[in-house]
Fold these 2 entries.
Entry 1:
Amino acid sequence: MAGVLFTSSAWGNLGLNIGDDADSVLNRRRDLQRSLSLSSLIYMEQTHSNVVSIVEEDVEIVKADAIVTSHKNVGLAVLVGDCVPILIRSSHAVAAVHAGRKGMMNGIVKETVMAMRTYPGDNFEAIMGPSICSDCYEVSPEMYGEVTAGFPNSATTIQKHALDMHSELAEQLTAEGVEVLNLGICTHEYPEYYSHRRSQKSGTPEGRQVGVIWL
Ligand SMILES: [Zn+2]
């Protein structure tokens, strides 16, 4: 049966190459797959690109920032620790998207929906999971000026110079005919979620959580 899930830190760190023991991470990934009764669970090697991978065969990892499949019972995972995990479904395909500031700027959302439209199907819906909110995502005034000049929906105030990724991403999804739900959970404010920025401030390593979607 189709579904979505966003993990919290209660599931443990699911990201490789961030200082955690690889075997422990792989065990947690297997536990997650088992608990969702998925035939496979595909992860991405994410690089803030706008590369979309359409997966029609059995693979464990793809080098991309969005994955699309039409296969039933195959889970697609996006790793995040402040970036926006976006899970999209239509009647015939699903997608997991890694959308941080760079993804917001390089059009990964549009690329993903275009890839999904190579399948038949309509009723596109997206859900934006736990990620850093527009109160917490302060950037330098220079970066704020540069990003909001190109993407005015991401603007908050000059004084605060924080970026609102959710408004801009929601706008991009809506422009592609996708209905959007934002869970509105801030990773930086809630210790139940891993936050890359909080980790940088505190000097304490944190992990990565995932958003998972399957048909
Ligand atoms: Zn916040």
Note: The pocket of zinc ion is lined by residues 133, 135-136, 186, 188-189 (CB under 6 Å).
Entry 2:
Amino acid sequence: MKILSIITQKGGAGKTTIATALAVAAQNDGLDTAILDLDDQATSCFWSDIRKEQTPAVKDVKAVRLPHMLDALREAGCDLVILDCPAIHRDIAMDAAHPSDFVLIPTRADVFDIRSMRQTVELMNSINKPCAVVLNFCPPVGKELEDSREIIKALGVKLSPVELHQRKAYARAQQEGMTAQETEPNSLAAQEIIALYKYTLIQLNNEKDVDNELVASRA
Ligand SMILES: Nc1ncnc2c1ncn2[C@@H]1O[C@H](COP(=O)(O)OP(=O)(O)OP(=O)(O)O)[C@@H](O)[C@H]1O
Ligand SMILES: [Mg+2]
């Protein structure tokens, strides 16, 4: 069983959007997938409540019960667990990161978000946890995006070659308990989520590092 955490200090960076979209991508790829929602806001749980499909399974869990829940899911034959973490909570971030095989750190290409994201990167580095930053809400053009990529690379942290752009399809789908690849399968949002899923899978399985071309060719 693989464990993926989605962690960043900043609120609203896209943690739950990415957790739910990757969970659906994994489930559709044949992996028995569960989301554990560690956030008291329980947004992943609300998404699941309005979702018509039974999968992926979504459960809210207190950090103190996380080891027990992970054992139970492993026992039940689950292939992939995605931990949707709350903003700000350093302790919960660490509780989630410790058992994880890989951590995705979403951030907007924005100076304040990148400042918060740096704290998350430092936390992951302090426990040598494999992680990658993924830029979300990317504008179609603009110098900020290139500047953000440079800042992230200068931190020495891995930067996902797949970037998510600001697209209405994400929010529209969420309001129906779905994901963009389900409601608008031909959309650019769907394409970038599938590409992010493929990139994440490679990282989770600790395969050799990949470049843009390989991710694109597998998408
Ligand atoms: N790439 C995107 N384009 C457009 N809207 C997006 C994108 N990513 C996320 N959103 C929207 O932004 C809002 C916040 O996203 P989300 O809830 O995933 O963030 P979060 O990091 O989980 O927030 P929190 O810290 O409160 O848990 C949601 O309404 C979501 O639909
Ligand atoms: Mg959230």
Note: Residues 2-218 form a domain with the Rossmann fold fold (CATH 3.40.50.300).
